[in-house]
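Q: I'm teaching a short session on how sequence maps to structure, and I want students to see two examples side by side rather than one. Could you give me a first protein with its sequence written out and its structure tokens following it? Keep the formatting plain so it prints cleanly on a handout.
A: Of course. Example one:
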Amino acid sequence: MKKIIVILALVALPMLKAGACTNLIVGKNASTDGSVICTYNCDGFGFAASLSYSPPGSHAPGEMIALRGWGPDAQVHYIPQAPYTYSVAGLMNEKQVSIVETTWDGRKELHNPEGWLGYFTLMQLALQRSASAREAIAVMHQLLQEYGYSDTGESFAVCDKDEAWIMEIIGKGEGRKGAVWVALRVPDDCVCAYANASRIRQFPKARKADKKLGFCVVPGVCMYSSDVISFAREMGYYDGPDKDFSFREAYGPLDWGAIRYCEARVWSFFRHHYDTAVMDSYLPFLNGDLSEHDALPLWIKPNAPVSYRDIQNDMRDHYEGTALDMTTDASAGPWASPYRNQPVNFEASDGTKMFRERPIGCQQSGMTMVCRMRSWLPDALGGISYFNLDDASMVAYVPVYCGINRIPEPFRRENNDISVFSTRSAFWMCNFVANMVYPRYSAMIGDLREAQTELEDYYEADQAEVEKHAATLTAGELSDFLTVKSISYTDRMMRRWDKLARLLIVKHNDQIMRPSKDGEIIPGRHTSPAYSPAFIDAVKATTGDRYIRKEVR
């Protein structure tokens, strides 16, 4: 039988790696309504991370699929296609399985550029071939063993409508296929987070590997590659007893950057949902003092159930109200901005090495999503990716159902060219607004928050009617209905953001503020936005009496 070669676009992103991402995870009993939730801020300059779609399908024996690496010159490899593949919209498939990621590099010598699978291709293949989170982990293991892993250390949140798992993997170096990995189930009543640092330390051990699966399983709790400890011994990373083995210490030990730029994001998220005094006891750790704490908890049980709207706002965090608050010192400028220019590390004129904070919300996000999986609804309706292109702080999250059969136009790759501005592009409309707000943050952010809240309130309120109507539809009708709904929601966001952009340029023209209401300019006297107190004090301290008003004699 002649082989059919199938070339699939497995990559939702342009051929560029995202350098620093954040994932938040919520177990079903930790959420307000029983949802499992995971999130993704895909951070890295210079790309528009559009929303992809791959349809479901049955595939004939001998059918092949192309694996493309990063970059236009990457070699193409062909592997057998699965007998059946599920549809995937973004990073959630039709069975409400979601996989999101964050990179942590780890030991450089374990990078194997000869591997066929990068992390994003691995995610896409697992989503196409898996009906549950556990199956997705097993699929990724099998693919890694057969075709090799080409990236550095990586963490995945692998979730479905019932369970949330965290999985850490790293390769074995040049000339060695496969990867070492460990996966832990997040307790249903807990929340967890990842931010570019390995976080799994000790984990439960099985007596022996599962022969059928080819890896070790502690039922319902833990899965891991059978050589995860023996390989560390072979490489000289560990020589203690198995029971004390720590994946992080062996494969991704912390340094200053991993603590302050990465673990600090986890700390701030936990602080939103736990005793603040307890979490503040970790501040010395965040400053590099490991004498009292040498790690954050892997997960916490929140003080109160967490809603998906809470999580959306957590994705916008800049350490506000904490000891790391980015809006309260002179570096925030006259408009109390939580944003800082690159680079993260810099030097003072006297050679002092300095840094800036790296929060969850940041200007370099190519896209942001909050994946919500609901077991009590049909899969097509139960799975929602709240999505948009650009910084979570500066966008409204648009509901996109996992049961759609095409992507809304403003989120499609062809409409989001990083080199060409377009009002048809969600990336460019969101960036158009954001880049007006960044330099005059305290003056403009209220207008953006008004539009953001208006849209997200509308989307939430509309869900009851959507679910009521969905109950009357056949499966085929439901897919079409949810597609039209997702397109309608996206178009509504684009119209509101166009209105917001026009308001901002008129209301704040020449750095004054004209009065407005409900997104419209209204008659009245203009005012001048106030400088932040920290900025005023810094100007006074550095300029002496130059700007002090004096009495005329």
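Q: Perfect. Now a second example for contrast.
A: Example two:
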Amino acid sequence: MGETNLMPIGNVSGLSSGIDWNSTIDLIMQLERRPVDILEIRRSEYQSRLTNWGVIESKLSALQSKAESLDSLDEFLAKSATTTDSDVLSVTASSGAIPASHDIIVNQLATNHTHAHTAGWSDLNSTAVNNSGGDQTFSYTYDGTVVDVTIPDGATMQDLINLINRDPNNTGVVASVIDDGSGGATPYHLMLSGEDTGSNKDISINDANTDLNDGTYFDSGNWAITQTAQNAEIRVDGFPDPGWGWPNPWIESETNDIDDIIPGVTLHLQDDSGGSSIRIEIGLDTSAIIGKVNDLVDSYNDVIETINTLTRYDAENETSAPLFGDSLTRSIKDELLMMIAQNIPGTDDNDVYRILGQVGISLTSGGKLAIDEDELEEALADDPTAVARLFVFDAESTSNFVTVTGHDENSVGGSYNFNLYYDANGVIDSGQNNTLDGSPVTVHGDSLFEGADDTDVEGLLLMLTDPGNGPSSISGTVKAYTGLSVLLANCIDRLTDSYEGSLKTNSDQINDSIDLLDERIEAWEVRLDSIEENYRRKYTQMEVLIGQLRTTGSYLSSI
């Protein structure tokens, strides 16, 4: 018998038997791989769950963003502000502005002070303003502050400008240069301008301290005031009446943006009105409010629709969506629906509106919301603050000396009694039994106190202001509203917390399952490699044996 050569383990040729062993082994290995296929299907299902939970989290984050943009009175009660002449006067209004009309006369604008050096200079970057051989000084006063700028030997006009502007002691003066266009020997003129408007923001040159150039070249006698620093002057609804004999017949302002005359309204002066009145109108911007509510509802519906789609079961085709039967999606949807259906925390029988359905927002099939804009508009016209409290955080106190200044996600809407002691200086006496909703408060500084942890008033922050002569105490009630936007934002914040939120826990569990499946699949792949190698070795040996038998048969036939 001749020498036998073994076939490579990776390739069973079938030359002796005529059998396609490679295809046979592939078919056998498909059966052997069934456990791995099942594991990979399960892994794909888990990966699909992880991906779809990412979609839900993205939708929740978008809803949280909308809710947080509509969770305060300022954000909800948008006000419209119009003017009959925006070239003279434009106007903006916050939620605190009272709807009304006002007539404004603009007598003059607030301006900044500008000085121009009249003597001029020949060039910017060649001729030195200081060729004394040592340091010299340029000195000015702005808004009551004296500033001495050191000018080194050889400094040019451009250097002087840079030294003034970059001086750390500069309190608001901008140096620049202007070309007078004369084509003369000294066309460049140094300009000094105050950054701030107002009659007190003037610039003066300090001759005694200025020895730059020949000692007098930059003195005050060589400067001209090209614009005087002055206050804006306006009259609002005829006030002040010049016939009253007041020292100043105008309301003055250092700036052209005036926000301290009409509460919640900022006047932006553009020009004087030439003695004529400009009418401004402040009103509730109902369309803007309805638009914001629509945005919130649309985002809410997007979350609900996403959950419905991902948890749907098709009975006709007997197919289920990736998250069908998932308990967390069901609990999230239930919690969202509960927020919609319940009375808003903090409201009671004394409130005009307690539930969203009273202002035209109702639940439809599948848990989505629908808005009757006409009904919402009517409610806003009737009592805009009552509507706002269905969405925002707001609070009121029965005491003029105690106000609510803050809250957090743990604060629950409701009515809470407080009892507060203060000393002769009007400072909270932390040694006394100061309580909110029957629990001791935490005192911060002289005037702030906060509700106790693990109570409905946790995070509720109140302030004592000017209580009068003491020592004494104040008792009263604060009523806090936590509207839908607040509830949604707080709920989603808990769900998506990066450390202990339900979505984080859920994704960790899914990832752990994927990791475990990866380990099992990897172990099976090693095992399958060994099984396949064993099959190839056996069939290779069989092929060799068949080849030997054929050789032996051929030998016997030849005898």
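Q: What should students look for in example two?
A: Point them to this: The chain has ten helices and 28 strands. Also worth mentioning: Residues 79-110+231-284 form one domain.
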